[in-house]
Inverse folding.
């Protein structure tokens, strides 16, 4: 046994027993060794030795629990070897395997079985795995939503039509599932829902800044303006000493600074006051001529330009005043109430279904334990919790940073007033927020607990373990330099000061080589138009990384050998490539490594259902159920089980091109087809009498699955996957399900939901370079770490969900205006999105910390930038020590976080020079050991160029004439001259030219204008009433069919509506929705009287005309487009015509002109088309808003280029407008 020589801090953590203890153990500080040492200090206390079963030890995973138990057993064995006669230690060996060392779920399950009678719970309940729970939740939620549709109460109808609007109910399922999932991190989910709903009311607020959402937004906005004011002041300092700049730029910058400071101060006055202050005047910069330092001049102007763009973005956040924001919140509240009610109903139904099946899922284990251990009203420990707490001398929780509120309450309840809690973890490595981990729990204690030595007896205290026993000093210094400059309370949720820094504890031989190498790969010379996440980018970076590894192996790079105390050449097994998300790039990197003769640890198929062996068995089961499915059938034929080559499959299809592929196989007389059909027929007969698991095992034996895939690379892992798949089928059958079809359907639903089953690891396979995600690397260490793909942009897809959920702020929905099908961001959503984005970025920062602390001797960071010089030029003005938190929050990737402080280092000169910017930003001291910073071109581009040159030389040698090459190039470079016209639609409707149409189409999931092929069922409209769009349709029908001679009063209009209803021109619901007062008001207005006096009218006039495409798509050439539409009303006169378009939008008085702007394109289309049809010019293009009784005329109807103008109610163009 290697002797453990603890540092003073480690010794204190092992021995301190004065009260609750939080150990903040930095990366590589030996926290697990300290936990074991503390446990043995208890077991071997000379005055009061304890037994190991008196301790509750909680770990994060089953694997970690097994490893910890094994290390405790090894320690016991080693101590017994030194003291064989120690009976107490011998007793601990016997007690070890009944000691409570496991996950929190294992502890909760044991507790529930023991006290099942208290909760009226069957003690033999079974814990459902996640795959089974997902399917069951989907089934229950489907039933609950179906029942709600049958009832169709107004709140649910609004929820379905707004938040869950889409082509189907998928969004509604996602919203409820997401909310339910987030609820599981709360000890009392029902109480949290009630509190959220109560806080969603805005009646008591007069200003949006008084609300919890507005306060957060204003606080962040004030920070932003302070940051921008600092940048402006920095620009003013830069121009000091340069009279031309001070004279011409100084006054403008000084004025901007003053406005920004006043804006920041106005945040304390409320939302509307701050909103008014965002209208900042940036003025005009004076002309500076003949100034020599153009770089300085452009840098100062760039600061102003960036500030201006940021203010414009801020203005969008504050685009609505308090009244509008509160109106939006009130509008969505019924839908929010319905969502909470639906979620509660689903939760209750799901609980009933699980109880009926004798099941409990993982969240049940925690929440039922909370019911058992706490008082529901107060959250205080129950009497039973007090009884249980007396069992444990101490409760040890490892990886405490990954705890959630439910688990934390459990630990507290079974402790003795939290005085016997030993909590160890590192909040900087909390990277599982997506699994509901809450790092704020650790942070709260970290900030509140006093250091050991300063705390009173019985008072909670903390100990920091900052000495790292893993990495070289250069790596630690690089990590400290980076995180001291980017971590802060504002950005990252905590400071990174001397207490958080890593200090070297490992001894390594001296090395002259830089421990950190930063490689910036520039794609600008290769493809300036390449996208940020293009496949080419991954290929180039993979090629570079493979070359770097080859270089390390060939050199060879020397690593420390603890066995000999000397050094040895690095091996492939010593190297790991880390990426944030390697699943879609692993194969690319593996291919590049293979090209250089470097093997990869494992096969690279880390996803269960994507592995070859599982894909084949799934395809085979699918065709056993139904062979007339081409894709699975061809997959089976092409697999190594049957061995049909692609050429052979093409041959079969060529012989029988008609019908599906199964028919082609049946028609073929070839021996291989006959043999396959015989095997398939025999297996299908067998399948009818077998359970799913027995059938799968029969297929393995009959077709040699285990042998065939076992002989492939990674065979042992493939065999484990096949066995695991069969085991899943056995569990499926044991749960009361039966049949091949149901099993295949369940697997299909699992895949659609993105769920995975067990996937065997690659630890038993031959060595090679490892390719891991950063999350998978946590807890591991490697001599050489290559952190790749750091330029990958942060994933912000979660922020696009229709409803956002936050633990403290509640829900953040959008508002959908059903009239024009446009979504608006509510006040709550803006705040929730802001908070979730902050937490996401803090998590990404911690992920980066984990990645940089895996390396022992060499850390290589690579980033591939589309335009490296351009990126550096953009970042350099904001580079600093520390970097402004506001600047960091606007970064798009980890690469930008790393570059911002790196550009201030002396070694960053190569990057600054590449960007054409000389000098070094002003910085303080503290560079630490040198970095190796390089700017690299793309080797693959150079290689491709050399290959092209070699090919050209070879062609010349073969005597290919230049004329022939020219002709070939001409043919290959042929561009179809009418290419633009192929992109044009053949038909265009006038409605599509409405102003906001392009916005709605821009996003795939954005709600679109609904076009019902059929009217909504009568039972829906009877229960729910008509939607806004349907009420508008009713009013249009009245205007289409009303007899103008009987429209002089509201009474006459009512009679006309009754007549239309009797003639089945209107439904009763439409008749009730039509407003006779609004119709009568139109005919009493100037425009209505003009309509009544008109000689010739066209009503609901349908047109279809061919017009030049150039009119709608500039640059479209000579093509034509069919324009179709329906004009509500057209007044024909000898010298021209007037178009009147009726609008039923909900619009405020005074806002008609703004709303009319959206319809300009539509009105112009009417005018252009009717001009073509009638041969007359358009005199006037009019809009009439029934909501306000106001008419507006579009200026310049011949050109359709002006803005709408308006007058009072019913006014038309008579010179009074």
């Amino acid at each position: 046994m290697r002797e453990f020589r603890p540092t003073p801090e480690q010794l204190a953590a092992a021995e301190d027993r004065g009260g609750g203890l939080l150990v903040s153990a930095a990366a590589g500080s030996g926290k697990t060794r300290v936990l074991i040492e503390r446990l043995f200090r208890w077991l071997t206390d000379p005055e009061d030795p304890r037994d190991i079963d008196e301790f509750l030890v909680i770990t994060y995973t089953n694997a970690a629990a097994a490893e910890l138990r094994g290390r405790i057993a090894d320690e016991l064995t080693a101590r017994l070897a030194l003291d064989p006669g120690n009976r107490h230690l011998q007793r601990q060996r016997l007690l070890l395997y009944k000691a409570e060392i496991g996950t929190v779920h294992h502890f909760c399950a044991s507790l529930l079985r023991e006290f099942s009678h208290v909760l009226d719970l069957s003690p033999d309940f079974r814990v459902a795995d996640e795959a089974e729970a997902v399917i069951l939740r989907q089934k229950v939620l489907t039933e609950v939503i179906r029942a709600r549709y049958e009832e169709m109460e107004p709140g649910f109808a609004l929820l379905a039509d707004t938040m869950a609007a889409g082509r189907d109910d998928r969004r509604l399922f996602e919203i409820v599932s997401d909310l339910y999932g987030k609820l599981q991190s709360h000890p009392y989910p029902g109480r949290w829902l009630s509190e959220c709903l109560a806080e969603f009311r805005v009646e008591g607020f007069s200003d949006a800044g008084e609300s919890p959402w507005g306060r957060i937004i204003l606080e962040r906005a004030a920070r932003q303006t302070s940051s921008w004011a600092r940048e402006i002041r920095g620009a003013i300092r830069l121009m000091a000493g340069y009279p031309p700049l001070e004279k011409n730029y100084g006054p403008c910058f000084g004025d901007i600074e003053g406005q920004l400071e006043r804006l920041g101060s106005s945040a304390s006055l409320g939302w509307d006051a701050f909103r008014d202050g965002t209208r900042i005047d940036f003025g005009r910069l004076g002309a500076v001529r003949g100034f020599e330092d153009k770089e300085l001049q452009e840098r100062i102007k760039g600061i102003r330009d960036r500030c201006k763009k940021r203010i414009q973005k801020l203005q969008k956040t504050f685009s609505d005043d308090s009244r509008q924001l509160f109106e939006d919140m009130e509008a969505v509240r019924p839908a929010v109430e319905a969502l909470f009610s639906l979620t509660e109903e689903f939760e209750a139904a799901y609980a009933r279904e699980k109880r009926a099946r004798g099941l409990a899922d993982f969240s049940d284990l925690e929440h039922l334990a909370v019911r058992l251990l706490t008082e529901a009203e107060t959250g205080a420990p129950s009497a039973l919790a007090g009884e249980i707490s007396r069992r444990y001398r101490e409760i040890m929780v490892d990886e405490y940073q990954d705890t959630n509120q439910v688990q934390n309450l459990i630990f507290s309840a079974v402790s003795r007033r939290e005085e016997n809690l030993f909590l160890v973890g590192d909040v900087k490595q909390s990277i599982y927020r997506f699994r509901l981990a809450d790092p704020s729990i650790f942070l709260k204690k970290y900030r509140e607990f006093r250091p050991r030595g300063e705390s009173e007896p019985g008072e909670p205290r903390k100990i920091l373990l900052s000495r790292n026993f893993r990495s070289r000093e250069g790596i630690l210094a690089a990590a400290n330099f980076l995180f001291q400059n980017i971590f802060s309370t504002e950005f990252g949720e905590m400071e990174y000061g001397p207490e958080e820094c890593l200090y070297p504890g490992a001894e390594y031989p001296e090395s002259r080589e830089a421990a950190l190498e930063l490689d910036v790969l520039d794609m600008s010379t290769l493809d300036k138009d390449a996208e940020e996440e293009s496949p080419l980018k991954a290929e180039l970076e993979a090629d570079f990384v493979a070359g770097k590894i080859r270089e390390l192996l060939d050199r060879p790079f020397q690593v420390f050998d603890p066995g000999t105390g000397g050094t040895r050449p690095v091996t492939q097994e010593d190297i790991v490539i880390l990426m944030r998300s390697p699943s879609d790039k692993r194969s690319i990197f593996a291919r590049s490594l293979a090209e250089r003769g470097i093997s990869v640890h494992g096969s690279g198929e880390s996803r269960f259902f994507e592995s070859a062996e599982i894909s084949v068995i799934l395809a085979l089961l699918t065709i056993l159920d139904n062979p007339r499915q081409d894709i699975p059938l061809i997959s089976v034929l092409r697999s190594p089980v049957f061995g049909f080559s692609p050429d052979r499959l093409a041959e079969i299809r060529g012989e029988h091109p008609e019908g599906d592929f199964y028919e082609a196989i049946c028609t073929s007389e070839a021996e291989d087809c006959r043999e396959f059909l015989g095997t398939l027929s025999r297996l299908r007969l067998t399948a009818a009498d077998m359970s799913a698991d027995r059938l799968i095992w029969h297929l393995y034996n009959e077709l040699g699955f285990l042998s065939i895939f076992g002989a492939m690379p990674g065979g042992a892992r493939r065999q484990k996957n096949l066995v695991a798949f069969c085991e899943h089928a056995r569990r499926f059958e044991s749960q009361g399900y039966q049949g091949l079809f149901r099993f295949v359907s369940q697997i299909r639903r699992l895949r659609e939901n993105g769920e995975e089953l067990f996937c065997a690891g690659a630890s038993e396979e031959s060595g090679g370079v490892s390719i891991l995600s950063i999350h998978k690397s946590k807890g591991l260490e490697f001599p050489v770490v290559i952190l790749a793909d750091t330029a990958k942009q942060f994933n912000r897809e979660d922020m696009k969900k229709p409803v956002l959920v936050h633990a403290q702020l509640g829900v953040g929905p959008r508002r959908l205006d059903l009239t024009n099908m446009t979504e608006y961001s509510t006040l709550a959503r803006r705040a929730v999105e802001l908070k979730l984005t902050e937490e996401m970025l803090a998590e990404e920062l911690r992920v980066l910390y984990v990645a940089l602390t895996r390396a022992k001797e060499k850390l290589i960071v690579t980033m591939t930038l589309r335009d490296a010089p351009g990126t550096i030029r953009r970042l350099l003005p904001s580079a600093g020590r520390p970097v402004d938190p506001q600047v960091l929050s606007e970064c798009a990737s980890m690469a930008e976080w790393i570059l911002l402080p790196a550009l201030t280092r002396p070694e960053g000169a190569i990057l600054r020079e590449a960007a054409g910017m000389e000098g070094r930003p002003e910085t303080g001291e503290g560079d630490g050991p040198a970095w190796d910073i390089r700017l690299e071109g793309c080797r693959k581009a150079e290689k491709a160029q050399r290959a092209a040159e070699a090919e050209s030389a070879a062609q010349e040698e073969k005597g290919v004439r230049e004329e022939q090459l020219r002709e070939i190039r001409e043919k290959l470079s042929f561009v179809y001259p009418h290419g633009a016209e192929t992109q044009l639609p053949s038909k265009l409707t006038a409605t599509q030219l409405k102003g906001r149409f392009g916005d709605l189409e821009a996003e795939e999931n954005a709600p679109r204008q609904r076009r019902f092929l059929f009217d909504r069922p009568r039972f829906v409209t009877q229960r729910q009433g008509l939607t806004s769009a349907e009420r508008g349709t009713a009013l249009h029908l009245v205007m289409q069919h009303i007899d103008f001679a009987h429209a002089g009063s509201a009474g006459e209009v009512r009679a006309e509506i009754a007549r239309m209803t009797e003639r089945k021109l209107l439904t009763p619901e439409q008749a009730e929705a039509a407003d006779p007062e609004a119709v009568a008001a139109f005919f009493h207005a100037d425009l209505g009287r003009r309509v009544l006096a008109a000689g010739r009218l066209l009503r609901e006039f349908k047109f279809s005309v061919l017009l030049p495409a150039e009119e709608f798509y500039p640059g479209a050439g000579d093509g034509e487009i069919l324009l179709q539409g329906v004009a509500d009303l057209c007044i024909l006169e000898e010298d021209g015509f007037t178009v009147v378009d009726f609008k039923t939008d909900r619009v405020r008085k005074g806002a008609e002109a703004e709303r009319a702007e959206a319809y300009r394109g539509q009105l112009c289309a009417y005018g252009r088309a009717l001009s073509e049809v009638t041969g007359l010019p358009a005199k006037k293009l009019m809009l009439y808003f029934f909501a306000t009784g106001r008419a507006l005329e579009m200026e310049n109807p011949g050109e359709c280029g002006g803005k709408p103008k308006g007058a009072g109610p019913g006014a038309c163009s008579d010179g009074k407008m």
